[in-house]
# Entry
Amino acid sequence: MRGRPRPERPGRGLRSRGTFPCHNTPHSPALRDRRASPRRGIPPSPVTTRRAPLHIATGERPGCRIRTTPPLPLSHHAAEPCTSRQASGCRAPTPGSPVATRRTPLNFATGERHRTPGARAAEGSFTPHTIAGHGRPRRRHPRSPAIDHQPAPASRASARTTIGRLVHISRPVLWINTIGTGVLGMWLTGALLDPAAIPLLIWLTLPFNLLIYGVNDIFDQDTDALNPRKGSIEGARIEPREVRLIVWAVAITNVPFLLWFVIAYPPAAVGLILLYTLVFVFYSAPPLRFKQRPFLDSLSNAAYGLPLLIVPVALDAPPLWPAVIGLLAWSVAKHAYDAVQDIDEDREAGIRTTAVLLGPRGTAVWSGCWWLVSTALFALVSVPVAALNLAIAGVLVVWMLLRPTPATGRRLYPVSIAFPYVAGSLASGLQLAKMFFEVYG
# Structure
């Protein structure tokens, strides 16, 4: 009689021998037997079970037993129904049939049983669980995480966001027009790195570019709202609430440098620096607002070439005048050409620029003439640089003449951005090579 399962007495054997149905729920025969005890005058249900072997890997006893007795009313203790990963002998319930449940696997690493999604979502609170073989719930304390990652303070995150926003407004992709020109001007004096020029070169990065484009964005909010280029690396689209932040940032980052220049540099250099600053401020700011004055808007942007003059004067070195004048002419041409892509937005906002007045074809001719002047002047300093300048400018002008539309200006704008990088790299490389051979040749 060894192989025959021994019947258990209902209402007692299930608890005494630890034999479990699929899950310890209020619907299980064990709990039903406990409720239907002789002490309450209710006859026990005829449920006969046998001990199933324990699966060591999962911690559960295989096999679900379908209850044949009517289910008791549901309580707050939720049972997990059999899923597609059911043990053998378990079948999915049908509408109106008793619910079959199974014991969830035990995780030996944590000592917990698998929790339902609802229980996982409630982590951090006490979750009731049913004690095996009994209907009383127990309270489980939430597991503490191994490492408590504290979030960064809000003030630090806000500061990083503010600095990133100011850098975006300063248009780093266009810094080459200021810092690149200043470094080349220092190299043209014959010095690889002059300590006296370091404050000036630092000023030509974030501080001065924030002044140029921050002031421009403040007074061009109407046109920038219509411009699809804004909001990218080509320029920020600011909000009215940011105006005060920009004004303070421009003052804080520029005033200390200007005071230092007054103390450290010769009066001629200080005058050029002030001219350089005021031209870009009043390009956008009233009452002068050069941007709305045809031809004057383009001519005022010749100031982009001034660092090639300011740095040598600040270092008490003679400037290379053909290069300086050539870069001034080059800057006039490039500003007018880049404004072609904004013709529609400027016209809609009522702003008359050189590009709006001349149109795409006329602007191409205007820019082409200035690029020819710059090529002739660059040839007096470096023929390779002049040849490269003529080649890139020729492509831009001819392409615009063949397809004279603002859309062509937008398509060619990446080439226009790359123009100073390519030409400046060639000019800088030739100058560094010249300096090397003068020292070691």
Remarks:
- The chain has a mean pLDDT of 79.
- The chain has two domains: 1-118, 173-440.
